[in-house]
Design a protein that fits this description.
It is an enzyme of class 2 (transferase). GO terms for molecular function: Rab geranylgeranyltransferase activity. Keywords: Prenyltransferase, Repeat, Transferase. By secondary structure, the chain is α/β, with parallel strands linked by helices. The protein contains 16 helices and 14 strands. The mean pLDDT is 89.
C-alpha cells in the first residue's frame, strides 16, 4: 500500500469544503466589520478602498460597500486633476475585476457609470471597447447594452455609427434580440419620421427594413428576435393627439363635447366661438375628473329657437365649423378619420405590407402553427383593413389561443379590441348622429375606445364576458345602458353618468346592497334592473334599494 496516492472520501471532501467556506466567511465578515466601523467613524482612507475592493471582488452585489467606496473617493478628491484621474482609472480596473466575477452585477455597472461621470475627461473610446468585449461574451447582457447607450450618449458618438454596429451584430447572429431592439431605438434617431405619420420611420426606410427583416424570419421562422422587430415596424401609433369628433348633447348642462385620439390635459381644449363670438372663461371638465382624458366637455349657452354656428379653433390654420339647427338637442360630427394618425396607408406602404402578408402566408404553410407567423399576420391584416379581414383575424386569434393557452386572455382582449374598433368604424359610416351603439353577444372581455362612445345616448354591451366597466365613465350622453348577462361586480365607474335614466344589470355578480350605493347621485335614474344577481337573494334588498335610490320608479329584482 506504500507509495499509493490516498483517495479522500466524499465525506472528507465535504468537510474540507465546509472548513474552507467557514474560513472565507470569517474573513468576509471581518472585512465587513472593519468597513462598518470606518463608515460610522467617517474614516475615509486608502485602507477603506483596499478592504472594499477585496470584499466587492468576492461579492460585487453588496450595494452598501459601493456606496461607502464612493464616499471614500469623493473625500479623497483634491485639486490635483492628474492624481484624481489616476485614482479613477484604478477604479475602472477594480470594477472590471468585479465584472469578471459577475458580468451582470447591477452594483458594478452602476458604479462604473458613476466613475465615468466623475472623470474630468472620461476615456469614452476605451469603454466602448470594453462593451464590445462583454457583448462578445454574452450578446444579451442588458446591463452592458444599457452601459453602451450611456457611453455613446456621453461620447456624442453618432447614432449612424451605432446603427451600422447593430447591423453587423445582426449579420453575425440573427438571433441577437438585443441588437434588433437597439436597432429599433436607433432608427428613429437616424431617420426621424414625419411629425404626423403613424409609422416609426419614414416610408422609404420602413420598406427597406421590412424587406431585410423578412429575409431574417425566412431564415429561421422559429426565432422570435426578428419577429419582434417586424411587429415594431408594422405597428402604427399616434405621434400627437388629434381631435376626432365633437358633439352637442342634451342634459342638464347642455354639454359641448370634444373627443381626442389620446389623453390630453385641459389646456389642450380648443377655442370656441358661437355665431362669431368667442366664448370666454369656459370651464372644461373630464368625465372621470382626471387631469388627462380623451374626453373634455364644457357647458355652452346657445340662442333659443334659431340655428347656431359654432367654430372650433385649435390653431390659426386648423378650424372646424358646425351648424346646429334650431331646436336641435343632439348633434355629433367627426373631425378626422379613425385611422391611426388620421391617414390612410400610402399605396407604396400598402403594397409592401401586402407582400409581407403573402410571405407570412407562405411561411404559415411551410411552418404551420408558428405563433409568431400568426401574430404578425394579425398585425398586418389589422393595419391593412381590419373590417375587411375581420373574420380572418378572428380565425388567427382563435388559433393562437389554442397554440398559446397561457396567453389566452391576451388574445381574448385583442378580439375585444378588434370588435370595438370595427363596430365603431361601421357605426360611423352608417350613422353620423351616433345615437345607438350595440355590441352584444360578442364575447367581449374588455372595453376599449370608450371615449368614442361619449356622445351615444344608448349603449348595449349585454351578453358578453365583461368584469370591469371602468372605461364607461366616458359615457356623458348615455341615457340607457344595457349590461345584462356579464360578470360585473363594481359599478363605481357609473357614478358620474348624470344623464343616465335606464340601467340594465340583470345576471351579473352583484352580491350586496353596498355595491349599488355608488348610484345614489344619479338623480335622473328612473329604471333599474338587477334581477338574477346574488344580491336579489338577500332579504330586504328591494326595500333597501328603494331607500338608497329614491328616484328609481321601476326596480326589478326578480
Amino acid at each position: 500500500m506504500h507509495g499509493r496516492l490516498k483517495i479522500k472520501t466524499t465525506a472528507e471532501q465535504a468537510a474540507e469544503k465546509e472548513k474552507e467556506r467557514e474560513e472565507k466567511r470569517k474573513v468576509y465578515l471581518g472585512g465587513l466589520n472593519k468597513v462598518f466601523s470606518k463608515r460610522s467613524s467617517e474614516t475615509y482612507d486608502e485602507e477603506g478602498l483596499k478592504i472594499t475592493a477585496q470584499l466587492l471582488t468576492a461579492n460585487p452585489d453588496a450595494a452598501t460597500l459601493w456606496n461607502f467606496r464612493r464616499e471614500i473617493l469623493l473625500n479623497m478628491k483634491g485639486e490635483d486633476e492628474e492624481a484624481w484621474t489616476k485614482l479613477l482609472m484604478g477604479e475602472l480596473t477594480m470594477v472590471e475585476h468585479c465584472l469578471m466575477k459577475n458580468p451582470k452585477s447591477y452594483g458594478a455597472w452602476h458604479h462604473r457609470c458613476w466613475t465615468m461621470k466623475t472623470f474630468p475627461t472620461p476615456p469614452w473610446a476605451a469603454e466602448l471597447d470594453l462593451c464590445n468585449k462583454y457583448l462578445k461574451l454574452d450578446e444579451r447582457n442588458f446591463h452592458c447594452w444599457d452601459y453602451r447607450r450611456f457611453i455613446t450618449a456621453g461620447s456624442e458618438k453618432r447614432p449612424e455609427d451605432e446603427l451600422k454596429i447593430s447591423k453587423e451584430l445582426i449579420e453575425r447572429n440573427m438571433s441577437n434580440y438585443s441588437a434588433w431592439h437597439y436597432r429599433s431605438k436607433l432608427l428613429p434617431l437616424v431617420c426621424p419620421p414625419l411629425p404626423n405619420t403613424p409609422h416609426p420611420v419614414p416610408v422609404d426606410v420602413l420598406i427597406k427594413e421590412l424587406k431585410t427583416v423578412v429575409e431574417a424570419v425566412f431564415t429561421d421562422p422559429s426565432d422570435q428576435s426578428p419577429w419582434f422587430f417586424l411587429r415594431w415596424l408594422i405597428n402604427r401609433e399616434e405621434k400627437s393627439p388629434r381631435l376626432l369628433k365633437i358633439g352637442l348633447i342634451e342634459n342638464e348642462k347642455n354639454n359641448f363635447v370634444c373627443t381626442y385620439s389620446q389623453k390630453v390635459c385641459q389646456g389642450y381644449a380648443p377655442t370656441i366661438t358661437v355665431n362669431d363670438e368667442e366664448q370666454m372663461n369656459l370651464l372644461w371638465f373630464s368625465p372621470n375628473g382626471e387631469t388627462y382624458s380623451n374626453v373634455w366637455a364644457t357647458k355652452l349657452v346657445l340662442p333659443a329657437n334659431e340655428s347656431t354656428k359654432i367654430e372650433i379653433l385649435r390653431n390659426s390654420s386648423d378650424r372646424k365649423t358646425i351648424i346646429i339647427p334650431a331646436g336641435a338637442t343632439h348633434l355629433v360630427e367627426w373631425v378626422t378619420g379613425l385611422e391611426v394618425g388620421g391617414e390612410e396607408l400610402s399605396d407604396l406602404t400598402r403594397s409592401t405590407l401586402e407582400e409581407v402578408k403573402e410571405n407570412c402566408v407562405t411561411l404559415d404553410e411551410l411552418d404551420p402553427d408558428n405563433k409568431w407567423v400568426l401574430l404578425t399576420l394579425v398585425d398586418i391584416l389589422w393595419a391593412l383593413d381590419a373590417r375587411n379581414y375581420l373574420e380572418k383575424i378572428k380565425q388567427y386569434l382563435a388559433q393562437l389561443q389554442s397554440l398559446d393557452p397561457l396567453r389566452s386572455s391576451y388574445y381574448s382582449d385583442m378580439k375585444s379590441k378588434l370588435a370595438m374598433e370595427t363596430t365603431i368604424a361601421h357605426e360611423r359610416g352608417a350613422a353620423e348622429s351616433g345615437v345607438v351603439f350595440k355590441l352584444s353577444e360578442s364575447n367581449l372581455t374588455r372595453i376599449t375606445s370608450s371615449h368614442l362612445l361619449a356622445c351615444y345616448t344608448m349603449v348595449d354591451l349585454s351578453s358578453n364576458r365583461l368584469t370591469s366597466i371602468k372605461p364607461l365613465s366616458n359615457l356623458l350622453a348615455c341615457k340607457e345602458l344595457i349590461l345584462n348577462n356579464n360578470n360585473i361586480y363594481d359599478l363605481s365607474a357609473l357614478s358620474g353618468l348624470s344623464a343616465l335614466e335606464k340601467l340594465h344589470l340583470a345576471n351579473n355578480w352583484l352580491c350586496c346592497q353596498d355595491q349599488l350605493k355608488c348610484l345614489q347621485g344619479l338623480t335622473a335614474l328612473v329604471y333599474l334592473d338587477i334581477s338574477s344577481n346574488p344580491v336579489c337573494e338577500v332579504a330586504g334588498t328591494e326595500a333597501a334599494l328603494s331607500e338608497i335610490l329614491p328616484s328609481v320608479q321601476t326596480l326589478k329584482v326578480t
